[in-house]
Amino acid sequence: MKASSKSNVKLILHCYNILPTPKYTCKLMEFTQQNANTNTIISTDESSVTISHAKLNRPCFISANNSREVSIKNLDEVGKEFLFPLVTKDSIDLLIIGTGNSPKFLSPKQQFELSEFGLGVECMNNSSACSSFNLLLGDLRKVGLLLL
Question: Where are the domains of the chain?
Fold first, then answer.
């Protein structure tokens, strides 16, 4: 039994005992371990969003560690008073607003108000918003998503 075990070990060692040559150099790749508790978006439909650990009805707000349904009805209601309790929990730097099937935009007054608040805001359709949110969340950015 030991002999076959040794032959297996020799074979394995032989397979992994490859010396690098100057023609082939090794480069190290840096990986970041993602927190399993982050609220990655799994799927979305016309009335709900499924994130890693829950299903929310829309409209809703999602950030790295928080998620909740909100009572906002349309883009005109987005302002400092509405966003302050949402974005301060995770210290959000960028808010992505999903505006439905087609992109809609904040009014100049709303843009000015939110820029004074120190918050970057991007409006886009829901599909693009969810993809952008997941991408930025994976890069460990301080991002929030408001899906209307």
Answer: 38-147
The rounded distance, in Å, linking the Cα atoms of 45 and 24 is 48
Model pLDDT for residues 27-49, shown as the tens digit of each residue: 454 444 455 557 999 999 989 99
DSSP characters over the chain? -HHHHHHHHHHHHHHH-----TTS--------PPPTTS--EEEE-SSEEEETTEEEESSEEEESS-EEE----SGGG-SHHHHHHHHTTTT-SEEEEE-SSS-----HHHHHHHHHTT-EEEEE-HHHHHHHHHHHHHTT--EEEEE-
Architecture in CATH of 38-147: 3-Layer(aba) Sandwich (3.40)
What's the whole-model pTM score?
Answer: 0.74
- pLDDT tens digit sequence for 90-114: 889 999 999 999 999 999 999 999 8
